[in-house]
Design a protein that fits this description.
By secondary structure, the protein is mainly α. The protein has eight helices and three strands. Bound molecules: manganese (III) ion.
Length: 201
Amino acid sequence: MSFELPQLPYAHDALEPNIDARTMEIHHTKHHNGYTTKLNAAIAGTDLAGKSIEDICKEMDMSNNAVRNNGGGYYNHNQFWTAMSPNGGGNPTGDLAAAIDSAFGSFDEFKAAFSTAAGTRFGSGWAWLCANDGKLEICSSANQDNPLMPGIGCGGTPILGLDVWEHAYYLNYQNRRPDYVSAFFNVINWDEIASRFAAAL
Ligand code: MN3
């Protein structure tokens, strides 16, 4: 079994004006599709064929650049599309809201810290909210690395990841990454993030 590009759970234009349709289309059908195809090529005929993408990330040989970059790219974008919704935004509720308040003081302080992680990641990468032994942590990673991978200085189970590669925002926001990060908060699917948090406990 090879990995397949997942369908988006909404139309390309569903997240406008926060993320424009053209960016979504290129990002999904070109970038994510490319990672998927190259991941399949990189694992074909190896011991990794047939493993879950989570296990491939957790057991990553970090010197294997083809699997590291494309396996990370495959996993990271899978979680990215479903972290967003046309009905998203607002604030989390329930256990996740309580865990955010406990870890960061308040939702606003969480938002500021996550936005700083996303804004200060130099070059291409991702900002993450992770559940680590029931506690929430924020970190960022370079390129297509993610917190499942060993030794990247960012651990736990990722429950929310924001793509800060220029391909994720440049058409609409150009160099204004902070505006894109701010817009992302308008579309976060907190119900989905809450279920990821519950599953990570
Ligand atoms: Mn991307």
